[in-house]
Design goal:
Helix content: 55-70%
Structural class: mainly alpha
Shape: elongated
Distance between the termini: 14 Å
Order of helices and strands: HHH
Oligomer: single chain
Radius of gyration: 15 Å
Number of strands: 0
Number of helices: 3
Strand content: under 5%
Largest sheet: none
């Protein structure tokens, strides 16, 4: 069962992974971050901006209906 505690734990994990990702991306030039790489959403910049909106928002919106938010 998804609980508020589980959601907080996953949010903390996600924040840590995001820090690692942005630290690694910070080592690259702007051109390298914008380069098309054939990933699902193209460049790293597009991936970082579009993926959360396309994949995370639908279930985040449902959290209140699940009694979690």
């Amino acid at each position: 069962m998804i609980s508020p505690r589980w959601c907080r734990m996953m949010a903390a994990y996600n924040a840590g992974m995001n820090r690692r990702l942005y630290d690694a991306a910070g080592q690259l030039s702007d051109a390298a971050r914008r380069e098309e790489r054939g990933a699902w959403f193209g460049s790293m910049i597009t991936q970082a901006g579009v993926r959360p909106a396309a994949t995370d928002l639908p279930w985040i919106i449902d959290l209140p209906a699940l009694g979690i938010a």
